[in-house]
From TrEMBL:
Matches recorded under Pfam families: CMD (PF02627)
Origin species: Actinomycetospora rhizophila
Name of the protein described by the UniProt record: Carboxymuconolactone decarboxylase family protein
Ranges where the Carboxymuconolactone decarboxylase-like domain occurs: 33-99, 161-241
Amino acid sequence: MTLTDEQQAIKDEFVRVRGTWDGSWERMLELDPAFVRAALDLAAVPVRHGALEPKVRELLHIAVDAAATHLHTPGVRRHVAAALDAGATPAEVMEVLELTSTLGIHAANIGVPLLVEVLVEEGLRAGPTPLDERQERLKAEFTATRGYWHSFWDEILELDPDLFEAYVAFSSVPWHTGTLEPKVKELVYCAFDASATHLYVPGLKLHLRNALGHGATVAEILEMFEIASLVGLHAATTAAPILAELAGRDGTIDA
């Protein structure tokens, strides 16, 4: 369809601010220009604030979209392209994907402490078993590499040292070989923990503390939240094209 002057102005501003445009936004623009304008204003907040460099903003978008709890392929493609255009290297993008791949361990972070609670309630556990030499070594290696220790690792290390050892090696790869500064790594963790598709409070609080310790500013952290908040727009970018297809140009449902 031919865009009205209002629709064309919104599209032009969107491209100027976001540097991208695709069919999903075109369909939404046809269905509800006011919504697209409001969505653009929301998405422009972190760009306008500018506490993070453009490359880092795009890397955080990738973390949110690529996370196992979201897997929004169109967003991943769009933001990988934008990150590369903003100067990110393929190695830096890969590092973000490596960091984001650690999300799966939260099954154990949540599940093992609950298992311990049930064991205690059922009279099957009296208390923690002292760590052996191997477990103490693994704890020391994790602390040295990651710069912290948290109590939610205690019971995983005690009850399943094989999983913990494999996870230490897996999660340490970007810390050993990556080039992103530590505060950016921690902001990546924060972004996917804070996302509406995950909302992992213990990890978010931990990584907020770590990010501040590595020099992140409050403005940078708030900008990370602004980026993560945009995940809600994917309801519209995914469904509006389906609505446009089924409703048809004349407002009737296609047969």
